[in-house]
Amino acid sequence: MPTTGWFETVAEAQRRAAKRLPRSVYSALIAGSERGTTVEDNLAAFAELGFAPHVAGLSSKRDQSTTILGQPISLPVFISPTGVQAVHPDGEVAVARAAAARGTAMSLSSFASKPIEEVAAANPQTFFQMYWSGGRDKMVARMERARAAGAVGLIMTSDWSFSNGRDWGSPKIPEKMDLKAMLRFAPEGLARPRWLLEFAKTGKVPDLTAPNLAEGRDPAPTFFGAYGEWMQTPLPTWDDVAWLRERWNGPFLLKGVMRVDDAKRAVDAGVTAISVSNHGGNNLDGTPASIRALPAIAEAVGQQIEIVLDGGIRRGSDVIKAVALGARAVMIGRAYLWGLAAGGQAGVENVLDVLRGGIDSALLGLGLSSVHDLTIDSVIIPAGFRRDLGT
Ligand SMILES: Cc1cc2nc3c(=O)[nH]c(=O)nc-3n(C[C@H](O)[C@H](O)[C@H](O)COP(=O)(O)O)c2cc1C
C-alpha cells in the first residue's frame, strides 16, 4: 500500500503516522492516562450515536460555514492546541497553513515548538492557548506577546491533574536533544528513514523547547523546564479565570469544562466560549467522553456563551453528532497530528477535507441544507448515553 499521497480516512492517516514516526514520538501522540478508559470512551461514545437518513427530498446545497470567537470559519472544525514537537520539522506552522488554506482557525499551545509570530503570520485566525503557569507577570508578558503577534483569541486550559502513569508505558522523552540523547534515540530514528530525512533536510533536530514561554531575550525553556514551572504554580481560582479573561479583554475560551456547575461559573467569569473537553483523555482517567457531557451543558448555558467540543473527533459524522448535541464547532487534536505526521501541511489539509466530506454526506443523508439546522433530534441517542455532570 502506498504511504504517500491522499488518504481517505483519519484511520489511514493514523496508520501512516505509526509507520512513519519513531516509536516514542508516535506514543507521545497516543497519550492517554492510567487505564486509558477516557481516551477509549471518547471514541466509543461517538459510535453509540446513530442517524435515521431520508431517501428523497434531500438538499442539493449544504452549508458548513459558521463563526467561532468572532472568526468566520468555512466548516465547524478548527485546530485544538497541542505541543507537536518532533512530529514534523514545520510543526505548528504547517498546521496553521493547512488550516488557513481550508478556511479555518488555528490554536497554538504555549508548549508548542514554533513561535506565535511565525504561526500567526501563517494563519491570521490564530488563538493562543495558555495554562495557569508562572505567575501573573509572566502570563501577562506571554499574552501581550501573543497579542502583538496577531493572536485573535485566548484559550485558557485548566483541566490538568498532572497524572503521570500509563498502564501501557510512557515514551521516554529526553530533556533536550543533546548528543547523548541523539545516540540513545538513533536506533528508533534510523528505523524511520523518511521521518529522519524530513528533519535532515532542515539541518536541525527536534529541539524540544517551548519558545512561547521564553522570557524576554532569554533562550526558550526546555519542555520539561516549562512543565516544572507549571507544576509549581499555585492553582487558579475562578477569580483568576475572570482576571485572565479581563486582562486579555478579547475573545476568550475556557477549555476543559465537563460539568454544568463549572460551565455556569465560566459564564459568571465572563468567558466568550467554553470547550467541553477532557483533554483528549489525557487528564483524569475515568472522566466520561466529552460528547456524553455536552447535551446537559449546552442546555444550561448554550444561550449565553459559545460551546465547542473536543475529544474523539475522527470523521465528519462525529462533527455532525457534536453540533447536533449542542456544539457550535469542534476542535480536533490527534486527527490533525496523524495528518501532519503522514504528510506535513498537505496531510493536515487532507484531514480537514476528509472531515468536510463526511459532514457534507451526513447533512445530505439527514436532508439538511446547513449545519445550523442540526438539532438534538437529528441523531439517535441510546438510553443511558448522557452524563449530566454537576447538575
Ligand atoms: C499530544 C497531545 C498534546 C496536547 N497538548 C495540549 C496542549 O498543549 N494544550 C491543550 O490545551 N491541550 C492539549 N492537548 C489536548 C488537545 O488540545 C485536545 O483537547 C484533544 O487532543 C482532543 O482530543 P482528540 O485528540 O481525540 O481530538 C493535547 C493532546 C495531545 C494528544
From TrEMBL:
It is an enzyme of class 1 (oxidoreductase). The keyword Repeat does not apply. Keywords: Flavoprotein, FMN, Oxidoreductase. Transmembrane segments: none annotated. Gene3D superfamilies: Aldolase class I. One of its GO terms (molecular function) is oxidoreductase activity. Residues 2-384 form the FMN hydroxy acid dehydrogenase domain. Its cofactor is FMN. SUPFAM superfamilies: FMN-linked oxidoreductases (SSF51395). Its EC number is 1.4.3.26. Belongs to the FMN-dependent alpha-hydroxy acid dehydrogenase family. This is Mycofactocin biosynthesis FMN-dependent deaminase MftD.
